[in-house]
C-alpha cells in the first residue's frame, strides 16, 4: 500500500489499458472510472507507443521529484512497482478482470434487448403454453389469428427465418421513417425498435414533444416458439384516437417491406436513415411504398 504522500505519485506510474482502439488512459489522482473500460471525460487519452518509457508519461514532469526520490531512496520498491506495471501490461486482455467485467455487462445488455419478455407480457400470459405444446406451428398460427380477428387490433404470424432477418437488421438499424397514406398526402411516423418491440410515433409529435412523445402504435413480437414451432407471433397495442386498425396494418406491413426485403436497394433506405441521415430522402420511401401497392389501399380509411 502507498501512503498519502505517494498516492499522488501513483497517477504517474499506474496506467490503465482501455478496451477501445488502442488508447491508453492516464488518470489524475483521486478519479476512478464508474465502469471499467469506459473512460470518463476527466481522463486524458494518448496514443499507445511500443514499450513506452516512464519518462514519456505526460504526468512524469509533474511528479518527477517524487519519482526520483523513490528511485534513489528505495530502489528495490521502485523496481518492484515497475515490474508490476510491466506484468499488468503483458496481461491478455481477454483474461483481465476489466475485460471480464465489460464482457459480462455486454451479455447483460444483450439479454435485455433479446429477452423474450416484452412490455406486452410473455406469450404465456396470452396462450396456455401447455395446451399448445403438442400443436404444430400451423395450428398455433390459426388459433392466434382467429383469436385476434375479433379484437380491435392487428396480429400476424411471422416465419422464424423472416423474423431473424428483421431482428438482425434492427439491431444495427433501430429507427426508420414510415409514410402512412392519408386522404390528402402522407403522415410520417418514426419507428424505433426496443428488443422485440417496435414503437411508432407520429413525426409531428416527435418534433413537438421530443423524447416525451407517446407512441401511437406498438408491435409486440413473441419469439418463444421460433425454434420449436418455426413461428414468431405478433400483436399490437394502438391508440384508437390517433390510428385505425387499417392504418396500423399498413405500418406493420411496411416493416416487412423495408426490414424483411430481399432487395438491397429497398433496405438501403433503412441503412441510409440510420447511418447517413444527411443523404436520406423521404420521397424515396413514398416511391417504394406506392410501388409495392401498400399505400393506396388504406387511404380511404385515413383520418
Structural overview:
By secondary structure, this protein is α+β, with helices and mostly antiparallel strands. It folds into two domains: 4-109, no CATH class; 115-301, no CATH class. It contains eleven helices and nine strands. The chain has helices spanning 4-13, 64-73, 75-90, 97-114, 137-148, 160-172, 203-209, 245-259, 264-275, 282-292, 295-298; strands at residues 16-17, 23-26, 44-47, 155-159, 175-181, 186-194, 197-202, 217-222, 231-238. A hairpin with a 2-residue loop joins β6 (186-194) and β7. It is extended, with a radius of gyration of 28 Å. The N and C termini lie far apart (72 Å). Its main location: mitochondrion.
What keyword list fits this structure?
11 helices; single chain; ATP11; ATP synthase mitochondrial F1 complex assembly factor 1; transit peptide; 6-stranded antiparallel beta sheet; disordered C terminus; mitochondrion; disordered N terminus; alpha+beta; 3-stranded antiparallel beta sheet
